[in-house]
Design a protein that fits this description.
By secondary structure, this protein is of the alpha/beta class. Helix content is 40%, strand content 16%.
């Protein structure tokens, strides 16, 4: 399906894979993703690994609306211990660092991370793309308009799918030109987009296959789900599974999730549908 070269470790993936979310922040929108002490971090990493995650995405800066901006130095302090502990105890896992600061990306990779996941696609820190190229790790290029603190204010688009698509084509091309061999694209569900715009993008995910890069989908417990359903993030696991399933049928190669077991089940069932013929949907009728 796709390969990733993480600092000389070549991984071959023949079906979609799971990126488990582990935050070392006190203010991430979903409380169940927050882990501050080493014991809790290792327990959660072990659970996600046993449930089927191959990648653990560690973040030290919340990007939820209204979250506090912290310095790169504080972010490094929050994430490095977690990266080192997981890398030492679970060397088979791929660690991803969720950051838009180049200096944090470098420190994280030197501590054991193998992927850089930047919600801005290299737009917030102009040194990011060059830094990732020098580190020789895969890069998650995400669409998020504006600045980190203001992107959620009045998102306006002519055609949201077209604009996100064009950005990912342009920015992933910049990444390749700079020397990043493995670029993963992420349309940035929930980043500078309202609920209707998020659903429009999800409904058009198959169009992103033209870019010919692994597609990451991150909808886990987000406002698109819980606000639409009138529930809380803690109640949004079923809605997450529904949208993950749609994403898988439309070409998602990586699911970024809080709930690994449920996402693995979605992968198993959607892969079975594909193996049974087509993409699992039979819109015609047949005589019995």
């Amino acid at each position: 399906m796709f390969t990733l070269n993480c600092k000389g470790r070549l991984f071959h993936f023949h079906r979609p894979v799971i990126m488990g979310i582990l935050n070392t922040t006190p203010d991430s929108f979903y409380e169940g993703s927050r882990f501050m002490g080493e014991e809790g971090i290792l327990q959660q990493a072990e659970k996600m690994k046993s449930d089927g995650a191959l990648i653990i995405d560690i973040g030290g800066q919340s990007t939820r609306p209204g979250s506090e901006r912290i310095s790169a130095g504080e972010e490094i302090t929050r994430v490095i211990g977690a990266i080192e502990s997981i890398h030492y105890n679970f060397p088979e896992l791929i660690i991803s660092i969720d950051t838009y600061h180049a200096v944090v990306a470098r420190a994280a990779v030197e501590a054991g991370a193998g992927i850089v996941n930047d919600i801005s696609g290299g737009m917030y820190d102009k040194a990011m793309i060059e830094t990732v190229a020098s580190l020789k790790v895969p890069f998650v290029c995400t669409h998020a308009p504006g600045e980190a603190g203001t992107m959620h204010q009045n998102p306006g688009y002519g055609n949201v799918t077209t604009e996100v698509f064009d950005f990912l084509v342009r920015q992933s091309g910049r990444c390749r030109e700079a020397g990043i061999n493995d670029v993963i694209i992420d349309p940035g569900i929930g980043f500078g987009k309202n609920i209707d715009q998020n659903f429009e993008i999800i409904n058009n995910l198959e169009k992103f296959s033209i870019i010919n890069r692994p597609l990451l989908l991150g909808v886990s417990r987000k406002g698109t789900i819980y606000r639409k359903l009138g529930i809380t993030p803690e109640q949004a696991v079923n809605g997450t599974t529904v949208l993950n399933t749609v994403g898988l049928l439309k070409g998602a190669a990586i699911l970024r999730v809080h709930d690994v077991k449920q996402a693995i089940e979605a992968i198993v069932l959607t892969e079975s549908l594909k193996e049974a013929g087509g993409n699992g949907f039979n819109q015609g009728s047949s005589a019995m």
